[in-house]
Amino acid sequence: MRLLGFNSTNSTNPINPMQPMQLMKPALQKIYVILGKQGDKQLERLSQMLSDLFSYVNLTSNLYFITNNLTEGMPQVERIQKAASVFLRDNLFARIYVHFIHSIPLETMKEIDFYYQYYYQGWKRVTREFDLEAYAHQEMPRLMLLPVIVPHNQVHPTALTGLLDTLRSAFLLPSLYLDRGTFFLTEDEVLSKTEKVYYGHGNSRETTEIVCDLCRQEILDDSCAMLGSGAVSMGMGTPCPAALIVSAQDGMVYPCMDALLKKESLANIYGELSVDAIMARYYEHGRSKRDCLGCRERVCESFADLPLPKATTHEVGALLCRFGTLYQETENHVQAIESYKKSLKLSPIEEAGHIYFRLGLCYTKIGRYDQALESFNRAEGTYHNQYYFYFYTGLCYFEMGDYRMALEKLSGAAYMKPQQDDLLKILIYMGTCYNSLGNYEKAIVELERAKEKAGHVKEIYNALGFSYFQLKDYNKAIENLRRAVEIDPYSAIDYASLGANYREKGDTEKAIAMYEKAIELDTNMNVARENLKRLRGKR
Amino acid sequence: MNVLLIEINPFAPASTPISLGYIASFLKSKGFTVKTLVLGQDTPMSRHGLYQLITSFQPALVGLSAYQRTMLYVIGIAGLIKSIDSNIKIAIGGPQATFMPTAAFAELPDIDYVCRSSGEVTFLRVARAIQNGTPFSDLAGVSYKNSHGAVYDTDELEGFTDLDSYPSPYLDGVFDYSCMKEAIMLTSRGCPHHCTYCYTPHAFKHKVSFHSIDRVIEEIKWIRKKGVRRLWFADPNISFKPSRSTELLDRILAEDLDLEMWLQTRADLVTSALMKKMKQAGVNTIAFGLESASERVLTRLGKHISTEKVAEAIRLAQSQDIEVELFTMFGLPYETFDDAVQTLEFVKKNKVKIMGNTNSQQMQIYFGTDMARHYEDHNIRPLNTNRPTYISIGSQYETDHMSYDEIQKVQELWRANSLDGGKRIVS
Known about the structure:
The complex is a heterodimer.
Chain A: E1 28-34, H1 40-53, E2 57-66, H2 70-90, E3 95-103, H3 106-110, H4 112-126, H5 128-136, E4 143-150, H6 157-169, E5 175-178, H7 188-191, E6 197-199, H8 207-229, H9 232-235, E7 243-247, E8 252-254, H10 257-261, E9 267-268, H11 275-286, H12 292-302, H13 310-329, H14 333-346, H15 349-365, H16 369-383, H17 387-399, H18 403-415, H19 420-437, H20 440-453, H21 458-470, H22 474-487, H23 492-505, H24 508-521, H25 526-538
Parallel strand pairs in A: 1-2, 1-7, 2-3, 3-4, 4-5, 5-6
Antiparallel strand pairs in A: 7-8, 8-9
Helix pairs in contact in A: 1-2, 8-13, 13-14, 14-15, 15-16, 16-17, 17-18, 17-19, 18-19, 19-20, 19-21, 20-21, 21-22, 21-23, 22-23, 23-24, 23-25, 24-25
Chain B: E1 2-9, H1 18-29, E2 33-40, H2 47-57, E3 61-65, H3 71-84, E4 89-93, H4 95-98, E5 113-115, H5 119-131, E6 142-145, E7 151-153, E8 182-185, E9 188-189, H6 200-203, E10 209-210, H7 213-225, E11 230-233, H8 242-254, E12 260-265, H9 272-281, E13 283-291, H10 295-301, H11 307-319, E14 323-330, H12 337-349, E15 361-362, H13 370-373, E16 380-382, E17 397-399, H14 404-417
């Protein structure tokens, strides 16, 4: 028996994700550049390429430069920053945030003033024009450098907070990249001075790994934003915010993290293609045919065992629950169960009831009624005043053959004034339970109530036919079964039931006709075949 | 003729551009083809995208909403448009433009018109002049710069007093409902009061004009039909006429519109019965302007409302389980550091959550306010006298009673007490 669809469980909120002017190609929100030991020519090419790319970035955009060598990386970033300054001078509507992700050797860390003066003071000098412009317009500067520190795993928290203070006092708002080797730094004193924490999933600190972690964070933030806006049901399969990943080491350009991991590059910036041509490829091919839904889910799952703030952990739990719902909506109940189970571990206790209920529905769908009941029991505190909760619980007992318990739950559901359509389904199940328990009179009471509410449901007449047959009221049985085959002229079982009733009435010809019709519709119906043989033999 | 209207605010998510919507709808009704573009924090748009839009739509006129915070971006977009086609005329309007000094034209080389009167009628005059091929004839309500660079001011232009004379941007299909989470309603315009820090009374000459309740209900029904449930009433004082606000709420209830509403009004314009009705009709948040908890400061501001009255209004709302937001400011004239702390304490004492719009902000001195015109009389000392002429004093000042450092301290105090980091939604 299939699970009857109840209106009240359909919580999908239809949201159209279309944006105004959506026919325009999406602007790049972020560009990630993995710096390496490129020569002057290559650096020149990289700088030129980024200059040309600025026309394709969002009016407020973010550039990430990742290096594993601060001394080598800083001059490269300064050079590229000059190109950004030129663009911003010509385009007053644009803002660029430059995030520089680098580690700091322990020795340098101890000499914070040296570190600041040697590496960052020069930057502050060249961006002064934007600070002045911002002051004149009473706004934030349009060009900002935002250091992202990758701390050494031996660093002392006090030294780190000293560095963060120094950077903050120079309006260089610092963030941290923490991985398994430095999660011990997630203490209040450090976090209170940090703009943002990027979470590393491994501990190799390879630049490619760091870029992937930055992308993961972006995908998580984007998914959480969807969750907050209510657009999540439609948006989970949409691509992550438009971005490019450029490896300055080998010149390869990737349209997203998934492509980077699979080494599916769009182009080589050190080759012949212009930026316009690269962007044409990006828009035409780069982001199509990718498993964005799967990628988002993998990303969310990857945060499950990280020491995130409680609120973020809960958001990850909510996202995993959402993935469960998406699987459930596409009838992939096994996968949905996995997502719900993971979600349970991360979600706040007050959400557990909702998740257990959905889990119960999925177990019901795949026929694991004992596990479904276990889940429903855990959801009872949340759903004890919802009639559909009792319906589904009753359904499980019904399927497990415990008709008394099924009746208890279904009666409870019927008593709670369900919606009209749902009441009909409950009454049919109740009638069927009574039939199974041999209490045909009560079955008839419930089924006749159902008939009063809706005269077009075949199951009512089928079950009533059974009840009246058992009570030997063949005329009533025939009357109901006739109605059943009127509604569904292809119902072999109802023709066979008609045959049985005519047989019991002694109307052999009509019984034979009904059995023949049943076999015509279902050639495998052995019961009808045997009855037919017997009746023909009696002739 | 094609007209493009742009609202840019890179500091907040894109919202329904209600003012531009009215202008768009009005121009459409007069035969113009109008496109509206909102560039918010969350709008994906690049220079390339803007270029494509301008070259494909080919507007003859572009209108840009101007606010103090967005002037740099307005100038930047105007520059881009002129670099694409120098024949495209560019007008700015909105709060920053209305009272901007004419001398600012010197620093706005790509702006042709500064709209100063009622947006719809003023912009129509400009559009018609361009359409007729005489872009600087028969204008009113604007300052303009002719092709030789000479600057002229024109006479003021009165807008319609009956707001129903303007076609509805909601009913006209100007807005895209597919991604609208909240509809911004403007059922009335203007304010009769004399608060010295506020732009609205001067811009509307202390008059208030209204839409009929029939029109408002028609719009709300249409918005609901389109699947939007949340309404944000931008009226400065929605309960200015108590009988009108009661009628509006009664009609919402009678039509069973199932809404969630945010609205703002003066604390002395609410009663227990009105608040009860608001709750029934779906008002979940109400905002009052407290400004300061110091009666002395309030008197100096021309805000004739007692803190007791505000406290009473808060209690009325809270008793109906309506969330309260309080607009407050610091750095006010005659306000001492202790006065500013008193305001924070008032908010806490009255159990108003310090988040969203309740996050306080430093008073901003905008063009057109009494404070901007007579800042010396209010003992205000601007800190940056070299600012561009299109930028007003804003927050760059200190007062005789509070130094810049003290003002910063008050800001930190509010941030420390904020539940959401201190970001205010409405300026």
